[in-house]
AI-2E family transporter (Roseovarius pelagicus), 354 residues
Amino acid sequence: MSIRSDRDAAQRTALVVVALIAVFVALKLAEDILAPMVLAIVTGVILSPLSRIFERLGMPKGLVASSVVLLCVILVGTIAFLIEPLIWRLVEAMPKIRWELRDFVDQFRDLIRGLSEMNQEVEEALGTSAGTVAEKGDDVAEGMPKLTDALFFAPVIVAQALVFLGTLFFFLLTRRGIYDWVSDRVTSSPADAGRVRQRFGTAESLVSRYFLTVTVINIVLGSALAGALMIVGLPAPLVWGIAAAGLNYLLYLGPMVVTAGLLLAGIVAFDGLMAVVPPLIFLCLNLTEGQFLTPALVGRHMSVNPLLVFVSLVVWLWLWGPIGGIIAIPVLVITMAMLDIFDTDDDAPDQATG
């Protein structure tokens, strides 16, 4: 009897492993369709409080969904419009950055004069003449994406944008019906269905609260960075503040990108040690935000194990790239809320159907 029981347990474990592999393969293969769909659903959950506000004003469901989608498009368009000058400025400055990098390293050669091998590696990597640096600058320019590459990927981007907008609209339009349908199908009694429906409401509330809190934190971080960069004289401080606020939604990866970008901008804009001042400012602000501001505002009821956050981020980044990085934390919070892992009040009102 024991042998048969062990065999059944092994078979169940094997089936679970095979099922997980199949799910990951399906998610990877259907990335172009599923990634914007899941992003749209997560966005709809985040924007659900706004939908409820419009509904309480007596607006029809169709108009509510259309208004929320329109506001989302306007917000994304405004952010893209503000960040576009910074992107083109960095693209155009890539050859100059190569020159500035060489000068920047040259200023530190006195500090490592005794390490001849390190000096030789630096000279071989960056070149010892202006002609070599210029050639590398040309290589960088040649390596930049061309117009034909952008035109090749344009249909995919447009299709994903349409999938995102369509999914977001219909999710906002029918989310209550979706919650009711799922609650009725996964339970066997009205009481259990009510509890599942309440879990959906709790998940919406937690994700919206988390996103709102993180948004406030990111705005404070971006404003502080813009003010500090304005004081030190870095060009386009407002754009850098907006970029830092937006990329800070991508845990770990976003701050790394901002730090690297500020280092390049500092090398282009300043001479000597002043080049490292912009990234150091951001690192200090980000450290303060991560160690003090976020734990104080998010609170203990929304605390998530850092290892679980890191694993979720790595897995979703591996599956879907930047989109996976955006949805990693909201999906984790939704999953934990549905499994009733958070320390929440079970008697909370049903916000999904109310």
